[in-house]
Amino acid sequence: MGFLPFDLIARVTDKKVKGVIQVGAHNAEVADLYKESGIPYAIFIDPLDSSMHSIRKMSAGMPHYHAVQALVSDVDDEIVDFNVASNWGASSSMLAPAGHFNEYPDITFDERIRMPTSSLDTIVSDILNTHPLDKECFNFLFMDVQGAEMNVLIGAPKVLRNIDFVWTEVSFGGLYKGDTNIYDMISFLRIRGFDLWYANINEKRWGDALFIKEKK
Prior knowledge:
This protein is α/β, with parallel strands linked by helices. The chain has a domain at 43-72 and 119-213: Vaccinia Virus protein VP39 (Rossmann fold). The protein has 8 helices and 10 strands. The strands form 2 sheets. It has a 7-stranded mixed sheet with strand order 3-2-1-7-8-10-9, with helices on both faces. Helix 2 links the parallel strand 1 and strand 2 (41-46). It is globular, with a radius of gyration of 16 Å.
């Protein structure tokens, strides 16, 4: 994903980013940016063992930065194949690759790991039940899940009530089997009070988008 939209948010709304839920955290490369931006709360979620060490290292010294190893989907405890990409896991997805092979022929998916899914509502609820945090601490949802964005959103109705900003990878669909296209995401989030404020799509037909909730 490209830049994080904190400056853009500051220009277009008086709402502040209080805490981040990052689904598909990879190696938590942006944790330092959260720290520099004064964001005191963060949840980093990723399914891969290889990511957890980096996430915990990047979160060191921040008592309210939480690392969770989980595969986020719309339901709990469904066993699925997680397709691990050869580019250090960056393109890994619970969805089988499709057009990705044509667009990025140098990236392979030679490893599949059987693992259970968890809904975002369950993960966040577990954290709030074990730490002295208010549910409104987390109002920024960051998704980088390679086409499985709708799975994450469907499993997060309670979380979305407290979210003001959704920053997500988007595409026109087809990179992965059954992936979310940007039009369906716009429709889903608009019903829940979010408007599209920014989108940048590259020549490969994917990019980043920012949605902001107008009213709670």
